[in-house]
Every structure is written in structure tokens, then in C-alpha cells.
Design a protein that fits this description.
The protein has three helices and seven strands; from the N terminus they run H-E-E-H-H-E-E-E-E-E. It has 148 residues and is an alpha+beta fold. The structure holds zinc ion. The site of zinc ion has 8 residues, from loops.
């Protein structure tokens, strides 16, 4: 991990709510880790959707200036607008990212941003092993109500 990635991870680990996770390797080995999660209320979800839609429309507006390609780019960005807005609106909880150590090789493993649907899956960049990320069952971990 280079210095920029380390600084980005340190900044990320100050955001949201920290939750302990267990990283499980393909042969059942375990390692500990932490993810930062964020919950979006209705207002935040609408704002995220509006921002995604505005970005698509801005990309379409900029694409108007590109000769020939604008025949394809403008309709694509306009059609992508509701899709991007829906994708931004849908998640109520996100894993912003996190870190742990690979249960297989012990290397630092950076957990990527994803919608919060445990168990998550990630791949160790050092040994290319698929890692399952589960919420740790400890007293330090906040108890979350299950969705009906
Ligand atoms: Zn590994």
C-alpha cells in the first residue's frame, strides 16, 4: 500500500460508524477487520439520487460539444440518468470501506465500498483468494435490527 492509499484509508476510517468484521478465507481461516458504515435517511437518499441525475445531465450537456460522438453520447447519458438516480437512491446503508488482514496470507486487505449486505465478498490483492466478510459477533459491535 502506497502513502496516498494509506492516507485515503486513514481518512475513510474517521467517517461513518465503525463495525468489527470477521474475514473468512476459503478454508475457513479467520482474521479480524473493521469496516465503516453509513446509513442514509430518506432525505439523504433523495439528495444522492438528484446528484447522480445532475451528473448524468451535465455529462450529456458537455457531450453536445463533441462532434459526431454527441449522436451516441447524449442519448446514452440521458438514458443513464434514471438508472444512475435509482442506483444512488436504492441503498439505505453503505459500507464506505475498511481494512483487515487476509485470513489466507496475512497481507493488508482493503475492503472496498459496497452496499451493506453481509456477508460481503472481496479478493485479496496479494494472494488472489476470495474472502468473505461477515459481521463479527462481539459485544463491541452495535446490535442492528433485522429487516423484515
Ligand atoms: Zn491474501
Amino acid at each position: 500500500m502506497d502513502d496516498a492509499a494509506r492516507a485515503r484509508l486513514a481518512r475513510l476510517m474517521t467517517r461513518g460508524v465503525g463495525r468489527q468484521v470477521t474475514l473468512v478465507g476459503p478454508d475457513g481461516e479467520h482474521a479480524a477487520g473493521e469496516v465503516r458504515t453509513e446509513r442514509y435517511d430518506a432525505r439523504a437518499r433523495v439528495l444522492r439520487a438528484v446528484r447522480a441525475a445532475v451528473l448524468c445531465l451535465a455529462a450529456a450537456a458537455v457531450s453536445v460539444l463533441i462532434p459526431v460522438a454527441h449522436f451516441v453520447l447524449v442519448p446514452c447519458f440521458v438514458l443513464a440518468c434514471p438508472v444512475a438516480a435509482w442506483k444512488a437512491y436504492r441503498p439505505t446503508r453503505m459500507v464506505l470501506g475498511g481494512h483487515g488482514s487476509c485470513p489466507s496470507c496475512g497481507a493488508d486487505l482493503v475492503i472496498q465500498r459496497a452496499e451493506e449486505r453481509f456477508p460481503l465478498r472481496d479478493v485479496c490483492t496479494a494472494c488472489r483468494v476470495s474472502v468473505t466478510i461477515e459481521l463479527a459477533r462481539t459485544r463491541a459491535s452495535p446490535v442492528e435490527p433485522k429487516h423484515a
